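ingest -> fold -> write
write: protein_1
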Amino acid sequence: MKNNKVIVLGSSGFIAKNLKNFFIKKKVNSTFISSKTIDLVKQNSYKKLSKKINTGNVVIFISAKAPVKNLEMLSDNIKILENVSKAINKKKIKQIIYISSDAVYSDSFKKISENYNREPDNLHGMMHVIRENYLKSLFSKKLCILRPTLIYGEGDPHNGYGPNKFIRLAKKNEDILLFGKGEELRDHININDVVKIIYYSVIKNFRGEYTLATGNVISFFNISKIIKKLYNSKSEIIFQKRLGKIPHRGYRCFNVNKIKKKIKNLKFIKINNKKYLNV
């Protein structure tokens, strides 16, 4: 590990910031490259990146414009992919870890495992499928793909529908608005678990594809109740009419046996653990 420097592509995002702090604690020899240092969307940026990567390095590919909402963003992410691939294609790196997303998987009423269909119906999922497939074609023997589901925890900047937003509202005693009855069942993984798994993927030199989730689902209604109780909040839980179809047909659960077999005694942080809910 001491001889294999880790190059992390992306430094300003939720995952990257927490990963950087974790690597510092673990004394991992690492360099985080931001878009300010190298804008990977720009043509020929691979030349600058190539100079940063040496034989034996581990490359963690997080850099992305996400979530993908239009064709321009999709195009930019493919440009990033192209430049990263060119930069490392002729380098004798040890490993490449690509941080993908569970968005690559099609919907299912059964638990989703790594070999399930990757036929998403949204641009964000399509972007990750394109990236995964291209990286597999070039670096299959050195590639580890990690697909986290919804991430929550300290430092999240998105304030998206779910635990992080509910916590902020609960702290202010403001109403928590739920779509429909908040009945859809989703899996949520804590950022601390995500960075820990990335760390183990590096030190144990993982190969293959792994879904990062807890294997357990919980409704948004129950999440809001748990958070309200944890923070002794005066917030009211308000149901509002749902616009459009319920996402993922109301159910999104994962089989996480594969990652549990790779990391012995892996215990996921529970969503009712207040210590890991600060946002």
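write: protein_2
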Amino acid sequence: MFESLSSLFLRWMSRRSLRSLHASGSVIGWLTYWLSPSYRRRLGEHATLAGLAPAAWRPAIASAGEMVMELPYLWLRDAATPISRSVTWRGAELVDAALDEAAARQRGIVFLTPHLGAFEVIAQAYAERYGARSPFTVLYRPSRQRALRKLVDQSRARPGLATAPASLAGVRQMMRALRRGEAVGLLPDQVPPDGMGVWAPYFGKPAYTMTLAARLAQQTGARIVLMRCERLPRGQGFMIEATNMVESFPEGVASDEAHQVECAAVINREMERLVLRSPGQYLWAYNRYKSPREPASPLDL
């Protein structure tokens, strides 16, 4: 009964306008900030680590609520309403060139984005624009709530878009996609399970960082493209920007831990640059510096 009511409510929300969803989300974001001392403290501490003045990070309070409230629209909106109607692109020529290169070399593309803005939009927008040319596989962590997991799985099953769980099976799925010359996407600022990362600086503080992003590219020859999706004001939609990495990975042996730390540090610095372009839309309260969760089987890539 509860699951049915929740589903009906989410579907009702999916029919609201982005403007109304973002307006209510802004209120929820601020309520959460003031009602949760631990949330408020972590958000402020993490933004301060990045050297930001309060004026730069305060918009992130409302942005976090906006992100939550737009999810029903992204997951459950009518199939006749493509997300592309709400999206503008910058750097699309870079994606086109990367796809041409991937097709010519039979090597894929690794898209990376942090927990910034409307990052959920990127996969859907890519699938609508490029999915017929090169399918997109995204790494995700399944929800622990059965009803929500089913709902999210159904919503992400779209033409040109596949999902891979954050597990050894999911990693193998992404490797196969890259070797077919397809595209994959992941959020490298997400804390991986124990055994799937290394400790590397993130805004000057050690953070357990996945090694997967660099290893996928290095072991398949895939090209890395950075993405960010900015939420436009007053429900006007979203802006997706594609850019190249500023740094290159150092030379070394992929299995060497010191080399993995160096590569993870490069990825973290790239994510920092993206975040600082839109600091008012980053999830600063995400527990980025926590210890990894339960041990995972070693990855043999």
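write: annotation protein_2
The longest helix spans residues 257-277.
Residues 106 and 181 are 5 Å apart (CA to CA).
pipeline exit 0
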